[in-house]
Amino acid sequence: GFIAQSVQAMTVTPNALMPEGYQALSRHAQRLSVNFRFEEGSASLDNKARQDLWRVLDYIKQHDKVEGQVTLVGFGDAKSDPARADLLSKLRAMAVRRELVKNGVVLREIRGFGAEMPVAANSADEGRIRNRRVEVWVY
User: 0.85 exceeded by the pTM?
Assistant: First the structure.
């Protein structure tokens, strides 16, 4: 039941169910094994996210990805207002960006996909928490 703490880059195979922008990203980059999670309506990093941030920074520096080789992709859980989910997904990616930039990382891009591509059902709190995330992609 333990989760590996080491950060790894994983290849994601594009498929037709993904938005075109996500398909393009998956063709050219790899997703890191760490996702940043957020509370309802929040774009603030909690204690676990701050620990994850240090692990991601270590990976980026060890693999020489500091200069324009990192893309952040934000997601939200389904909201009654899709524009709110879209905005929160971007704000979450910007919160991670702010911390990475403070530590010398120059990002390539920030994307927000709103409530698209949920990784769990939005019918339960646990699923919504998993869907409120920021993925880190490296080239």
Answer: yes
